[in-house]
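Wait, can you check?
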Amino acid sequence: MKAKKEYIRYTEDMKKDYTVFIPNMLPIHFKLIARVMNNYGVRAQVLTTSGPKIGETGLRYVHNDTCYPAILVIGQFIDALESGKYDPHKVALMLFQTGGGCRASNYISLLRKALERAGYGYVPVISFSLAGIERHPGFRLSLPMLHRMLYAVTYGDLLMTLVNQTKPYENEPGTAERKAEEWTRRLTDEMANNRIKYRKVKENYRAIVRDFASIPKTKTEKVKVGVVGEIFVKYSPLGNNDLESFLVSEGAEVVVPGLLDFCMYCVYNGIVDHEFYGRGPLRWRLNRLAYKFLLKKQRDVIEIIKESGQFRPYTPFDRTVSLSEGYISHGVKMGEGWLLTAEMIELYESGASNIVCTQPFGCLPNHICGKGMMKPIKKKNASINIIAIDYDTGASVVNQQNRIKLMLAAAKREAGGEPAAAAGPEKAAVK
């Protein structure tokens, strides 16, 4: 039997002069997370490259049947190594992994094979995973580090939500995004401090909400469009062809559930594992404690958003959990699992009855829990309008956008924003 090849470890000595590349899934969140890592001696840098060359680079080293997010992430890493801007012998790469039962859990092996083919087999690849998939002496997830990263996520969710609720209505285009950039810089500077006081965190929440509330806006009727799907193409502008900007340009308000929801979904699944399969009582207790802790943090942000009276707060995650009942079992947890179904109902309940379900072509969990659940959801909620958009290196951006335009045309007609005669053919196409 062939012995398993030992992977290159990221060591303590490497922390001195190695740069650790992070793929850009959530621009605001990941900048904050990178700063937390910098505080612990890891020189993290979020890659922001985009364009067709990223997918083309990935396809040179990965089979085209591979999961689309893997092609993009691997392509972005190798593109950076080939750019000539960095010394490949002083670079490490980081992948975020849940350790769940989907193709994403194999990214790290695919990346290492791709690096060998490209001539960079000596580059360390770090697995960021609470499941302890791999061990690297130079990168250890400690409770203090995770605690700080939690606030990077809550800050990121808040900024993302406020930008989405402000951008379609701002009198001066670009104001909301500039505010988000200013707050990201300010928060990254604050996170350089050794201690984070929760009182200060809550003060920041209130200051952020006030700052966005002060932006001059003209409130007009906009179609609210929710975005759900596989986590990378749902959030990443690289993965979804800058879907959010496209929707705003078409006169829509974008509604996207936060990253904290996915984190709580992963923790909640640990509780379900005990209840369904009798797995370890100790892990069950730890997951329950973590779940209650995260719920409290989310509720604090919700209450602060409510105080302003100008923005819609998030849906509490325990409510999201209950929304899946009657549709899908909590035992369905491959990929985004039951959360994907629950988020579609959550968005509908919050007023975003038009939903784009983003999924990598051939992603089985998303075809089941997303596209596969559209019919039962529509059966119980007649006015909901969901379209599933496949994202792949061979997919046509024009076709994707045209399908979304058809959905928006039908939504505007339903809202009374267009004459029925002008939008008649589109309705037939969408239905």
About this structure: The CA atoms of residues 364 and 371 lie 10 Å apart.
